[in-house]
Design goal:
Blueprint lengths: L1 H8 L2 H17 L4 E5 L6 H17 L3 E9 L10 H18 L5 E6 L6 H13 L3 E6 L7 H8 L3 E4 L5 H10 L2 E4 L1 H6 L8 H6 L4 E3 L13 H12 L3 H8 L1 H6 L17 E4 L6 H4 L6 E6 L2 E5 L2 E2 L1 E2 L4 E2 L2
Parallel strand pairs: 1-2, 2-3, 3-4, 4-5, 5-6, 6-7
Antiparallel strand pairs: 8-9, 9-10, 10-11, 12-13
Helix pairs in contact: 2-3, 3-4, 4-5, 6-7, 10-11
Length: 318
């Protein structure tokens, strides 16, 4: 809620500047496509302007931005014990406005004790789907509350977190083709002793993606390379599995796997050159940015660890 207050008070240009600075750091880390959520406005006007800022950032920066509406992040303080009124406002006002203005592709919800119940989450996601916003979820992060099962029921693009998902929930996700987005940075920054069991996720047939969960409260880092290392060291993934999770499987969860996530003829030339003896060093030497060069859509945007794109035009410089 501290972030909500600060976000509401910030001018659009200040928000845009902050987003572009984060995206620069992401690009230096080798990130060329990202999914970004709203969720820190929690009023109709603030949620819309956050998504508008993301749309502007995507036009100004080489990184491709895939927007997600997260009005159902938490019940804002001004609604007090009127949580049903807030849920209905998300359904009746926010979702139609976001969809009509084409500001997002996905609708997310934080399904958790203290946030939104399974039934409330179902209503929000169904409303989003009816408006053309594909469902995705925060699921079973802090408790086992049925989030994974709901993600399977809704055939969500992904269920994120899953630290406390049940075996049955994961089996249902596998059967429904729902991807898991594992967020080792959140567990690390929150000093959790219980991490998502990636080995179980994989053995039960769910494809694991990896993301930073970059946010002000629980994982304030742009480093995907650190996420790969943490996934290997604390989630029992192999380096190969973690790399696939950070590339192809991640692309699947944002429905971009036909164009990015794999080095293949006919797909975008989004390439990284890393200063390592071999890929195993991504786990063996954590906390270091190994990226030397970044190529986005065939154009060099980072060279010798320096940004070289035209920040006015959002294009690579010559």
């Amino acid at each position: 809620m501290s972030t909500v207050r600060s976000t509401r008070a910030a001018a659009n240009e200040d928000l845009l500047d902050a987003v572009l600075q984060r995206m620069d750091r992401m690009l230096l880390e080798g990130i060329t496509t990202c999914e970004a959520k709203s969720g820190y406005g929690l009023t109709l006007s603030d949620e819309l302007r956050l998504l508008q800022v993301l749309e502007r950032a995507g036009r100004l920066h080489p990184i491709d931005v895939v927007a997600t509406f997260l009005g159902a992040h938490t019940v804002p303080a001004e609604y007090g014990d009127r949580r049903e009124a807030y849920v209905q406002m998300v359904i009746d006002e926010m979702i139609p406005a976001v969809a009509s203005q084409k500001l997002a592709e996905f609708c997310d919800v934080f399904c958790e004790q203290g946030a939104f119940s399974v039934e409330e989450s179902r209503r929000v996601l169904k409303a989003g789907a009816a408006a053309g916003l594909a469902p995705r979820m925060h699921a079973d992060q802090l408790t086992s509350c049925g989030g994974a099962e709901l993600a399977a029921e809704m055939r969500a693009a992904s269920a994120d977190h899953l630290e406390h998902a049940t075996d049955e929930g994961l089996r249902r996700m596998a059967g429904a083709g729902v991807g898991a987005v594992l967020l080792p940075g959140a567990s690390f920054c929150m000093r959790e002793t219980h991490w998502t069991n990636a080995r179980k996720v994989i053995e039960l047939g769910v494809a694991p993606a990896i993301a930073t969960d970059l946010n002000p409260g629980t994982s304030n880092t742009e480093s995907m390379q650190l996420m790969i290392a943490l996934a290997c060291l604390n989630m029992d993934m192999s380096v190969e599995e973690a790399i696939v999770g950070a590339t192809l499987n991640a692309a699947v969860t944002i429905r971009r796997n036909e164009t990015v996530g794999v080095l293949q003829v006919g797909r975008a030339a989004d390439l990284l050159v890393m200063d390592v003896p071999n890929y195993l060093h991504l786990a063996y030497r954590p906390g270091v940015n190994h990226v030397n060069t970044v190529i986005k859509n065939g154009s060099v945007v980072v060279r010798d660890r320096l940004l070289i794109y035209d920040q006015e035009a959002g294009q690579a410089s010559s």
